[in-house]
C-alpha cells in the first residue's frame, strides 16, 4: 500500500520543527491534523446537579492540564472565587507550573509528585491529611484515584467538570486517506460513531499505546502500525519507518 495522504488525530503542531513536517517533506506525503475527539467543560447547570461545593474544600488535585483549564473556566462561569489560601496538589511538576496560567504560583501552596503517577502523589497528600481535597475529573475515568484516596483515608470529593466528545466528520472526508493515526481509544470510538459503516479496505491504521491498539482490534479493524517499539519510541519515528517501507 502506497502512502500519499495521512490523517493524524491530534491538533496541528505549533512548531515548524515538528518531525511530522520532516516526514511529509522527506516522502512527499500530505499529513493532515485533526482530532477525532475534543474536551469540553460541563455547563454550570450540569455541574450544580452534582451538588458539590468547591469552596467546602481546602485543596485541589490536578491530574492533567485539561483538568486545570476546565476547573478554572468553570469556576468563572459558576462565579466561584478561589481563595488565596487554596492549596494545589499535582501529579507532575509540568502540571503544577501550568497553574501559573490562572493563579500566582507560590511554592508553599503548590505540591507535585516526582513521577507523574497518581500513586506517587498520595504520600504527599497523606502528610497534609487535614486538608479537604477536591478532585476535578473527566466523565470518562477509572477508579484508581478514588480507590487510593479511600484506602489512605484522605478526605476528598470527586466531581465531573469536563467531558470527551466526538468531533463531527463528513462521510466523504475519510475516503481519500491512505492512513489514519490514533492516540486514544476515544479516537477509535469517534471513528466508529462518525462512520458506522466504515470499511477499512486498504487504509492503514497506526496507533500509539497498548490501550489504543486493543481498541483498534476490538473494533474489528486491522492494525498496521503500533508504537512505541524498541526501533521507534515515538509515533513520528514509527511513521517514518512505516512510510519508508511502504513507499519503496
Task: Give your account of this protein's structure.
The chain is an alpha/beta fold. The protein has two domains: 5-36 and 168-246, Rossmann fold (3-Layer(aba) Sandwich), CATH 3.40.50.10090; 40-164, Rossmann fold, CATH 3.40.50.10090. Helices cover 32% and strands 21% of the residues. The protein has nine helices and eleven strands. The strands form two sheets. A six-stranded mixed β-sheet has the order 3-8-7-4-5-6. A five-stranded parallel β-sheet has the order 2-1-9-10-11, sandwiched between helices. Helix 1 packs parallel to helix 9 (235-246) and helix 7 (185-194) runs parallel beside helix 8 (210-218). The longest helix is centred in the N-terminal third of the chain and has 14 residues, at 65-78. The protein starts with a strand and ends with a helix. The mean pLDDT is 93.
Task: Give me some keywords for this one.
Rossmann fold; alpha/beta; 4pyrrol_syn_uPrphyn_synt_sf; 5-stranded parallel beta sheet; 6-stranded mixed beta sheet; 32% helix; 2 domains; 248 residues
Task: Give me a quick take on this structure.
With 248 residues, the protein is α/β, with parallel strands linked by helices. The chain is built from 9 helices and 11 strands.
Question: Alpha-carbon distance between the termini?
Answer: 10 Å
Structural class estimated from helices and strands: alpha/beta
Count of spatially separate domains: 2
The tally of helices reads: 9
Query: What's the overall average pLDDT, rounded?
Result: 93
What would you call the shape?
elongated
Q: Helix proportion of residues, in percent?
A: 25-40%
Give the uncertain stretches in residue-range form.
none
Determine the strand fraction and express it as a percent band.
15-25%
Radius of gyration from the alpha-carbon trace, in angstroms: 21 Å
Give the CATH level 1 class of the largest domain: Alpha Beta
How many strands?
11
Amino acid at each position: 500500500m502506497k502512502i500519499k495522504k495521512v490523517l493524524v488525530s491530534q491538533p496541528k503542531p505549533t512548531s515548524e520543527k515538528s518531525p511530522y513536517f520532516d516526514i511529509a517533506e522527506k516522502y512527499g506525503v500530505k499529513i493532515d491534523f485533526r482530532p477525532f475527539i475534543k474536551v469540553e467543560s460541563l455547563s454550570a447547570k450540569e455541574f450544580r446537579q452534582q451538588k458539590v461545593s468547591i469552596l467546602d474544600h481546602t485543596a485541589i488535585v490536578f491530574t492533567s492540564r485539561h483538568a486545570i483549564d476546565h476547573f478554572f473556566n468553570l469556576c468563572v462561569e459558576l462565579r466561584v472565587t478561589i481563595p488565596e489560601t487554596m492549596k494545589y496538589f499535582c501529579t507532575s511538576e509540568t502540571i503544577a507550573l501550568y497553574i501559573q496560567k490562572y493563579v500566582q504560583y507560590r511554592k508553599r501552596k503548590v505540591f507535585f509528585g516526582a513521577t507523574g503517577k497518581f500513586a506517587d502523589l498520595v504520600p504527599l497528600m497523606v502528610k497534609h491529611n487535614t486538608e479537604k481535597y477536591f478532585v476535578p475529573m473527566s466523565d470518562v475515568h477509572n477508579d484508581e484515584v478514588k480507590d487510593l484516596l479511600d484506602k489512605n483515608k484522605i478526605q476528598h470529593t470527586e466531581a465531573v467538570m469536563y467531558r470527551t466528545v466526538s468531533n463531527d466528520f463528513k462521510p466523504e472526508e475519510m475516503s481519500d486517506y491512505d492512513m489514519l493515526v490514533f492516540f486514544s481509544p476515544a479516537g477509535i470510538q469517534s471513528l466508529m460513531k462518525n462512520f458506522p459503516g466504515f470499511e477499512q479496505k486498504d487504509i492503514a491504521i497506526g496507533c500509539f499505546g497498548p490501550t489504543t491498539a486493543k481498541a483498534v482490534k476490538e473494533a474489528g479493524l486491522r492494525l498496521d502500525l503500533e508504537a512505541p517499539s524498541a526501533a521507534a519510541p515515538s509515533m513520528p519515528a514509527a511513521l517514518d519507518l512505516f512510510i519508508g517501507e511502504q513507499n519503496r
